[in-house]
Amino acid sequence: MNRKLLIALIPVLLCNVNCTSQKKGSSGAITSNGVQKKSKVQKIEITEQTRGTNRLITFTSGSTTTSVNGNISVAVLSAADWENIVKQAELIDLDKIASLTAPSEGRYGDRAFASSILITVDGKTYESSTFDSGAPPKELENLYRELFKEIKSKQKFSKKGLR
Fold first, then answer.
1. Helices (H) and strands (E) in the chain, counts
2. What three-state secondary structure class fits 111?
3. For residues 61 and 150, is the Cβ–Cβ distance under 8 A?
4. Which of 72, 81, 102, 156 is such that its CA lies 20 to 30 A from the CA of 59?
Protein backbone atom coordinates (compact mmCIF):
# COMPACT_ATOMS: atom_id res chain seq x y z
CA MET A 1 0.00 0.00 0.00
CA ASN A 2 2.82 2.44 0.84
CA ARG A 3 4.51 1.64 -2.48
CA LYS A 4 1.38 2.60 -4.41
CA LEU A 5 1.23 5.93 -2.58
CA LEU A 6 4.94 6.53 -3.22
CA ILE A 7 4.57 5.66 -6.91
CA ALA A 8 1.62 8.07 -7.16
CA LEU A 9 3.50 10.92 -5.45
CA ILE A 10 6.78 10.67 -7.41
CA PRO A 11 5.41 12.26 -10.63
CA VAL A 12 3.85 15.08 -8.58
CA LEU A 13 7.14 15.77 -6.78
CA LEU A 14 9.15 15.67 -10.00
CA CYS A 15 6.77 18.08 -11.68
CA ASN A 16 6.99 20.46 -8.72
CA VAL A 17 10.81 20.38 -8.71
CA ASN A 18 10.91 20.98 -12.47
CA CYS A 19 8.51 23.96 -12.28
CA THR A 20 10.44 25.49 -9.39
CA SER A 21 13.74 25.28 -11.25
CA GLN A 22 12.19 26.95 -14.29
CA LYS A 23 10.99 29.85 -12.16
CA LYS A 24 14.44 30.35 -10.66
CA GLY A 25 16.10 30.11 -14.05
CA SER A 26 14.26 32.97 -15.71
CA SER A 27 16.82 35.70 -16.37
CA GLY A 28 14.74 38.88 -16.60
CA ALA A 29 12.33 40.60 -14.28
CA ILE A 30 8.96 41.63 -15.60
CA THR A 31 8.23 45.32 -15.08
CA SER A 32 4.84 46.90 -14.54
CA ASN A 33 4.43 47.59 -18.26
CA GLY A 34 5.11 43.94 -19.13
CA VAL A 35 8.51 44.56 -20.71
CA GLN A 36 11.29 42.23 -19.69
CA LYS A 37 14.27 44.04 -18.15
CA LYS A 38 17.66 42.41 -18.23
CA SER A 39 19.68 45.16 -19.84
CA LYS A 40 22.26 47.32 -18.14
CA VAL A 41 22.53 51.10 -18.38
CA GLN A 42 26.13 52.00 -19.19
CA LYS A 43 25.91 55.78 -19.44
CA ILE A 44 23.49 58.66 -19.65
CA GLU A 45 24.29 61.94 -21.36
CA ILE A 46 22.59 65.31 -21.48
CA THR A 47 23.41 67.61 -24.36
CA GLU A 48 22.48 71.28 -24.18
CA GLN A 49 23.14 73.75 -26.96
CA THR A 50 22.40 77.30 -27.88
CA ARG A 51 24.32 79.88 -29.88
CA GLY A 52 27.73 80.11 -28.22
CA THR A 53 27.30 77.33 -25.67
CA ASN A 54 27.70 73.60 -26.07
CA ARG A 55 27.36 71.53 -22.93
CA LEU A 56 27.69 67.75 -22.61
CA ILE A 57 27.22 66.08 -19.24
CA THR A 58 27.98 62.36 -19.06
CA PHE A 59 26.96 60.15 -16.14
CA THR A 60 28.59 56.76 -15.69
CA SER A 61 29.03 54.45 -12.77
CA GLY A 62 31.42 56.37 -10.54
CA SER A 63 31.75 59.71 -12.34
CA THR A 64 30.11 62.72 -13.91
CA THR A 65 32.03 64.34 -16.77
CA THR A 66 31.06 67.83 -17.88
CA SER A 67 32.24 69.55 -21.03
CA VAL A 68 31.29 73.19 -21.55
CA ASN A 69 32.61 74.57 -24.83
CA GLY A 70 35.48 72.08 -24.65
CA ASN A 71 36.43 72.73 -21.00
CA ILE A 72 36.18 69.36 -19.26
CA SER A 73 35.73 68.64 -15.57
CA VAL A 74 35.13 65.35 -13.78
CA ALA A 75 33.32 64.79 -10.48
CA VAL A 76 32.82 61.65 -8.42
CA LEU A 77 29.37 60.06 -8.57
CA SER A 78 28.51 57.80 -5.65
CA ALA A 79 27.17 54.30 -6.22
CA ALA A 80 23.89 55.25 -4.52
CA ASP A 81 23.44 58.30 -6.77
CA TRP A 82 24.20 56.22 -9.89
CA GLU A 83 21.69 53.61 -8.74
CA ASN A 84 18.99 56.30 -8.35
CA ILE A 85 19.71 57.58 -11.86
CA VAL A 86 19.61 54.07 -13.34
CA LYS A 87 16.30 53.32 -11.61
CA GLN A 88 14.73 56.35 -13.27
CA ALA A 89 16.23 55.47 -16.67
CA GLU A 90 14.89 51.92 -16.48
CA LEU A 91 11.33 53.25 -16.19
CA ILE A 92 11.54 54.83 -19.65
CA ASP A 93 10.42 53.00 -22.78
CA LEU A 94 13.62 53.48 -24.77
CA ASP A 95 12.06 52.41 -28.06
CA LYS A 96 9.74 55.45 -27.89
CA ILE A 97 12.19 58.00 -26.46
CA ALA A 98 12.91 59.65 -29.82
CA SER A 99 9.25 60.41 -30.44
CA LEU A 100 8.40 62.03 -27.10
CA THR A 101 6.78 65.45 -27.39
CA ALA A 102 8.38 68.48 -25.73
CA PRO A 103 5.98 70.68 -23.75
CA SER A 104 7.53 73.99 -24.91
CA GLU A 105 9.43 75.48 -27.86
CA GLY A 106 11.73 78.16 -26.41
CA ARG A 107 14.77 76.47 -27.93
CA TYR A 108 13.67 77.57 -31.41
CA GLY A 109 14.22 81.25 -30.50
CA ASP A 110 17.24 80.91 -28.18
CA ARG A 111 15.07 81.40 -25.08
CA ALA A 112 16.29 78.03 -23.77
CA PHE A 113 19.02 75.53 -24.39
CA ALA A 114 18.07 72.83 -26.90
CA SER A 115 18.50 69.68 -24.82
CA SER A 116 18.37 65.95 -25.36
CA ILE A 117 19.08 62.87 -23.27
CA LEU A 118 21.07 59.92 -24.58
CA ILE A 119 20.88 56.60 -22.74
CA THR A 120 23.35 53.85 -23.61
CA VAL A 121 22.17 50.35 -22.71
CA ASP A 122 24.12 47.23 -23.64
CA GLY A 123 26.11 49.17 -26.24
CA LYS A 124 23.07 50.70 -27.97
CA THR A 125 22.36 54.43 -27.62
CA TYR A 126 18.83 55.81 -27.46
CA GLU A 127 18.41 59.57 -28.01
CA SER A 128 15.41 61.55 -26.91
CA SER A 129 13.67 64.14 -29.00
CA THR A 130 14.97 67.69 -28.46
CA PHE A 131 13.35 69.72 -25.69
CA ASP A 132 13.87 72.99 -23.82
CA SER A 133 16.33 72.77 -20.95
CA GLY A 134 14.31 72.58 -17.75
CA ALA A 135 11.18 71.41 -19.57
CA PRO A 136 11.62 67.78 -20.68
CA PRO A 137 8.79 65.62 -22.02
CA LYS A 138 6.74 64.32 -19.08
CA GLU A 139 8.07 60.78 -19.61
CA LEU A 140 11.62 62.05 -18.97
CA GLU A 141 10.87 64.42 -16.07
CA ASN A 142 11.87 62.13 -13.21
CA LEU A 143 15.16 61.13 -14.86
CA TYR A 144 15.90 64.74 -15.79
CA ARG A 145 15.24 65.96 -12.24
CA GLU A 146 17.46 63.18 -10.83
CA LEU A 147 20.30 64.10 -13.21
CA PHE A 148 20.12 67.80 -12.45
CA LYS A 149 19.91 67.12 -8.73
CA GLU A 150 23.35 65.56 -9.09
CA ILE A 151 24.65 68.35 -11.29
CA LYS A 152 23.47 71.11 -8.96
CA SER A 153 24.93 69.40 -5.91
CA LYS A 154 28.40 69.06 -7.46
CA GLN A 155 28.94 71.86 -9.96
CA LYS A 156 28.11 75.49 -10.41
CA PHE A 157 26.70 76.59 -13.76
CA SER A 158 25.11 79.84 -14.64
CA LYS A 159 21.41 79.73 -13.86
CA LYS A 160 20.50 79.97 -17.56
CA GLY A 161 19.08 76.63 -18.62
CA LEU A 162 19.09 75.04 -15.15
CA ARG A 163 15.55 75.45 -13.98
1. 3, 9
2. coil
3. no
4. 102
